[in-house]
Structures are given as structure tokens and as C-alpha cells.
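S1.2 Input.
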Amino acid sequence: MTVDEMLTRIRQTGITYSDVSKCTGIPLSTLQKIFSKATVKPRRTTMQILTDFFTPSGYSCAAEAPAEYKTDGSGALQTLSIWERTDNTLEDYLALPDDIRVELIDGAFYNMASPNAIHQRISMLICREFESFIENNGGPCIPFIAPSDVQLDCDDKTVVEPDVFVVCDRDKITLPRTVGAPDLVIEVLSGSSWYHDTVRKLKKYRNAGVREYWIVLPDEKRVWVYFFEESGLYNEYTFDDTVSVRIWDGKCKVDFKKIFDKISFLFDKNKGKS
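S1.3 Output.
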């Protein structure tokens, strides 16, 4: 079996490099070099172990690791897929292949679809408004745009990628990720993310201490704005409205009509598509 065939199996099943390492006894660092193709000619014995592992009928943990890779067997891979588990951690998240986009919430993985052009442009234009406001008014806040990880609860069970978010406590910002709740989060919905963004992540953001949460619904041309410091209910706006940012006392305003004018041609292209 070739490295490319193994990578295909990994993408199809969502199994992590960490799981492969635990099962085969091959160090995670060695696997990362093989699967990234930094190692051009892996050892024949190593490739045989991996081929035996990626069997057509499933994953075999019966492979005999090379002597230099021997372990005590305590980390043998369980048959339960990471997609069915609720005990995944930051370590499992970081071990996923780079081309797999997921969020980790309370130990469970959730797939993330790639954003379409409408989704991406709305996110970028909103973030640009925030960047401009901060440059003109000063202050410690920093805006971010996906993909950028947020370790929401400061534990190893939840890592999310909001479309746009603002962090005003710079101590929360590390080079790998933000650790702790942002002050403002914005999610731009796609059809597949409705429940994820309006229910699951809404609850997580509120409980984690996010102050303000916007949900942008492009298909309906509406914006729901939650300001959790005052209420658990949202105020609804349309793409004809200007929306004030509450964490900045309404001084920053996002003109959605202006945003829509810039992307309206994409809505024509999107007619009849989900």
C-alpha cells in the first residue's frame, strides 16, 4: 500500500495519526514525517506494518512493530471510531491530518464544510470593519478570522474555529491559539451548520463567557445578535440595516447594506443551490 492510499483511508475514516501510532507502536513523529512525505523512502518494515494496519476489512492491531518501535501495548487502538467517541482531546485534534477541518466540542468531533464565496466574503468584510475601527480608536482588542483555533473552555475538550471573533484580553492570545472565551464571536451560516451554530455553539459560547454573538444567515439576509450580558434572546436585523457592536458601546457599526452591495453578484450565482 502506498502513502497516498493510506492518506485516503485516513480521510475516509477520520482516524488520527495518534491512533495509528498507539496501535502500531510507530512513533507519532515518524508517522508525521511519512504522511507529510518529508521522509521520501520510509523503511520497508515500517511500511509493511502500516500496510497490515490499513487492511481492507478494517484496522488491524495485530501488526508486529519493528524492534526499535516496541511498546508495552497499553495504548492499543480501540475499535470505536474517533467520530463516535466523546473523550477526544486537544492531543487528538492536533494529530488529525491538516486537510481535515473539524471542531472539538466536549470531546466530540464535528466536521466543518469549507466556506463558499458568500460565506468567506461576509466574514472578511466584517473583520475588515473591526480592524478599521480598532486602528482608528485604539484599544487592546484584536480581531481574528477563520481558520484560527479557540480553546474555548481553557481545557483540552473543546477547540472551535469561529468565522470571526474579537479578543480584548491579550493574555488569552498565544501563538498556537486563543485560550479562553473571545469577547465577540460571529458565525456565518451554511445549510449544514444550522444546528451546530444556532444551538450547539450558541450554548457553548454563552456558557464560556462570550459577551456578544452574531449569527449571519446569508440565505435569509438576516443577522441575529445576542448580547448575553443583558439577555439570552436575540435582536434580528436584515441586510438593509446597520448593526452596532455592543462590546464597543455601539461606537462601531457594521453596515450590512454596504456589505451586501459588494457581494450581491454572488447571490445571483447561488440561486437554486444549497
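S1.4 Remarks. The chain has a mean pLDDT of 85.
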